[in-house]
């Protein structure tokens, strides 16, 4: 039903466009009412004038566009159409409305009836989009069919030349341009009007009337069993036979379905080239004019029954559908190819830009490299000149060095003699240093003794300070505890007195240690003076040997009696030992 609706819309579109007198895309309501009535008549659809009036009843008395007319056309006419109307009559009604306005006034080699048939064929082969056009592939298909029907040879080169001059902006021809193309005889040169008309009629019968095959054959009667010549017309589901090819006197039909079959028969009763068509209720014996015609008819009927079993459309309609699907596929592929080409072009432009950027970078790099090479060559020349100068100078220095080596060799002998003398002096110096080391050990012993005494003195002082702090705290206590604290104070004073006595004893011992230190110091000064005399002797021999001198002393602690003879670490160690001793007592 969908394909029938599309075929009807194409013819109606021509009629609507023809009624648009001023090319505004709109038609007056009175004309559309007449068109709707005529369509209902030829399509055998009940005409509903009330629905027509209701649809066009509004305040706007102006014309109606194609989009405004389509809802009524679909709802009240096309949806009610059955496949029981005369398609030729329908097409002729639409043709009558549009032919006078659109058919060319130039003389044509075809009649108006032939032009009508070409117009109907155009509607069959045109694309399913508006405005209707027929593309070059379908034009080539139609011209080939006409050339074959005229018995001529197809001129592919001529058509290719025509395609070159084809207007690409239109993408195809309109119905009236197609009629003019066939009517001016460009592709039927050498053919008379009758031949062209017969070819158009043959193609019309095949494509529009679904005539698969036609021709004269002999048919055996069912009652009198006599043989009579009839004009047979094979269609997708029926074989009709007429008295003659003008199709005016129809004698009967052979209804075909998937249960029918066709069989070849042997010659009999003086009849040759026989075949049999078996149907559900009847059997038809037919005689062809020759074996070739017999085989063609058997093959055509067999193919028709096979298509009925498969539920497939006639071959020309199926071929048209395949061509349309192929064009859609090619169009989709072309669009995809164009999209890919655009992407490739964009990518190519991007690559070109990248290459241009790389080229510029390479040029800049080459320029920098050339500049660097120039600088390198200049530097190399400068280095070579500098190297030559350095080489000359090195040669001069080498000569001077050789002279100095000779001089140093003599000095070396003197130096070795001096070294032997210094070795003897070194042995004597070692003996002096040994005496100095012994004096330092004695000094260290005295220093340790002083440190011990000072540590004991520090511990006593800390204890005295602690007792003094306790006395101060005791004074601040209550009167009740004062007597007891006084007794403790007396005891502590006695202990303090004893500590003072011990401190005096330690002071005495410290003085004795100090006297011992002075004695050791004098010995050390004597050893130092002796070492200094040896140092002067060594300095006299160009200072080849450095004397070992006593290291610098760490800063001394300062006590109430003067500088201490021990370090802070030694004092901490003495204090620690004194506290441990005190704890033990």
TrEMBL record:
Task: Tell me which InterPro entries the record gives.
Answer: EF-hand-dom_pair, EF-hand_SWAP70_N, EF_hand_dom, PH-like_dom_sf, PH_domain, PH_SWAP70
Its main subcellular localisation, reduced to a broad class, is membrane
Gene3D superfamilies tied to this protein: Pleckstrin-homology domain (PH domain)/Phosphotyrosine-binding domain (PTB)
Q: Does the keyword Ubl conjugation apply?
A: no
PH domain: from which residue to which, for each copy?
A: 210-306
Keywords associated with the record: Cell membrane, Cell projection, Coiled coil, Cytoplasm, DNA-binding, Membrane, Nucleus, Phosphoprotein
A Gene Ontology term for the protein's cellular component: nucleus
Compartments in which it is found:
Cell membrane; Cell projection, Lamellipodium; Cytoplasm; Nucleus
Mention one GO biological process in which this protein takes part, according to its record. positive regulation of actin filament bundle assembly
Q: Name one Pfam family in it.
A: PH
Task: Output the CDD domains linked to this UniProt entry.
Answer: PH_SWAP-70
In this entry, which stretches build a coiled coil? 316-537
Ranges for domain EF-hand come to 7-42
Q: Which GO terms describe its molecular function?
A: ATP binding; calcium ion binding; DNA binding
Fetch the SMART domains from UniProt.
Answer: PH
Q: How does it assemble?
A: The SWAP complex consists of NPM1, NCL, PARP1 and SWAP70.
Q: What does this protein do?
A: Phosphatidylinositol 3,4,5-trisphosphate-dependent guanine nucleotide exchange factor (GEF) which, independently of RAS, transduces signals from tyrosine kinase receptors to RAC. It also mediates signaling of membrane ruffling. Regulates the actin cytoskeleton as an effector or adapter protein in response to agonist stimulated phosphatidylinositol (3,4)-bisphosphate production and cell protrusion.
Q: What is this protein called?
A: Switch-associated protein 70
**Species name for this entry?**
Pan paniscus (Pygmy chimpanzee)
Q: Which gene encodes it?
A: SWAP70
């Amino acid at each position: 039903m969908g394909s029938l609706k599309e075929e009807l819309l194409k013819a109606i579109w021509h009629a609507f466009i023809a009624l648009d007198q001023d090319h505004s895309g709109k038609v007056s309501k009175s004309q559309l009412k007449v068109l709707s009535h005529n369509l209902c008549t030829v399509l055998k659809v009940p005409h509903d004038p009330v629905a027509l009036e209701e649809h066009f009843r509004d305040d706007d008395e102006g014309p109606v566009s194609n989009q405004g007319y389509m809802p009524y056309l679909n709802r009240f006419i096309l949806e009610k159409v059955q496949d029981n109307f005369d398609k030729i009559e329908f097409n002729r009604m639409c043709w009558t409305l549009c032919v006078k306005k659109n058919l060319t006034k130039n003389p044509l080699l075809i009649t108006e009836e032939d032009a009508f048939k070409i117009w109907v064929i155009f509607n069959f082969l045109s694309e399913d989009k508006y405005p209707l056009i027929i593309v070059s592939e379908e034009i080539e298909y139609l011209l080939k069919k006409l050339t074959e029907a005229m018995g001529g040879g197809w001129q592919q080169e001529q058509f290719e030349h025509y395609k070159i001059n084809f207007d690409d902006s239109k993408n195809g021809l309109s119905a009236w341009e197609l009629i003019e193309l066939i009517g001016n005889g460009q592709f039927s040169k050498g053919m008379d009007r009758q031949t062209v008309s017969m070819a158009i009629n043959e193609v019309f019968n095949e494509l529009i009337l679904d005539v698969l095959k036609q021709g004269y054959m002999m048919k055996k009667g069912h009652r009198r069993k006599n043989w009579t010549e009839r004009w047979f017309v094979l269609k997708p589901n029926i074989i009709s036979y007429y008295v003659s090819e003008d199709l005016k006197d129809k004698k009967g039909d052979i209804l075909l379905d998937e249960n029918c079959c066709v069989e070849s028969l042997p010659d009999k009763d003086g009849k040759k080239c026989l075949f049999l068509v078996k149907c559900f209720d009847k059997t038809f014996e037919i005689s062809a004019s020759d074996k070739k015609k017999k085989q063609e008819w058997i093959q055509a009927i067999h193919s028709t029954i096979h298509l009925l079993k498969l539920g497939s459309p006639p071959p020309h309609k199926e071929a048209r559908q395949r061509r349309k699907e192929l064009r859609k596929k090619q169009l989709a592929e072309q669009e995809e190819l164009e999209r890919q080409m655009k992407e490739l072009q964009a990518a190519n432009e991007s690559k070109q830009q990248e290459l241009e950027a790389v080229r510029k970078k390479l040029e800049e790099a080459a320029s920098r490299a050339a500049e660097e090479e120039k600088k390198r060559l200049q530097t190399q020349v400068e280095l070579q000149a500098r190297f030559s100068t350095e080489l000359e100078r090195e040669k001069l220095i080498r000569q001077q060095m050789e002279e100095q080596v000779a001089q140093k060799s003599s000095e070396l002998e003197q130096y070795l003699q001096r070294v032997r003398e210094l070795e003897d002096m070194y042995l004597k110096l070692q003996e002096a240093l040994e005496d100095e080391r012994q004096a330092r050990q004695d000094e260290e012993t005295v220093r340790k003794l002083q440190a011990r005494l000072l540590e004991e003195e520090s511990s006593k002082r800390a204890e005295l300070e602690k007792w003094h702090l306790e006395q101060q705290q005791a004074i601040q206590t209550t009167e009740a505890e004062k007597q007891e604290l006084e007794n403790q104070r007396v005891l502590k004073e006695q202990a303090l007195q004893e500590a003072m006595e011990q401190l005096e004893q330690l002071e005495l011992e410290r003085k004795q240690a100090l006297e011992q230190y002075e004695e050791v110091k004098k010995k050390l000064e004597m050893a130092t003076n002796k070492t200094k005399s040896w140092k002067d002797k060594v300095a006299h021999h160009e200072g080849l040997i450095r004397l070992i001198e006593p290291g610098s002393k760490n800063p001394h602690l300062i006590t109430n009696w003067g500088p201490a003879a021990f370090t802070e670490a030694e004092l901490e160690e003495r204090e620690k030992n004194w506290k441990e001793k005190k704890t033990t007592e």
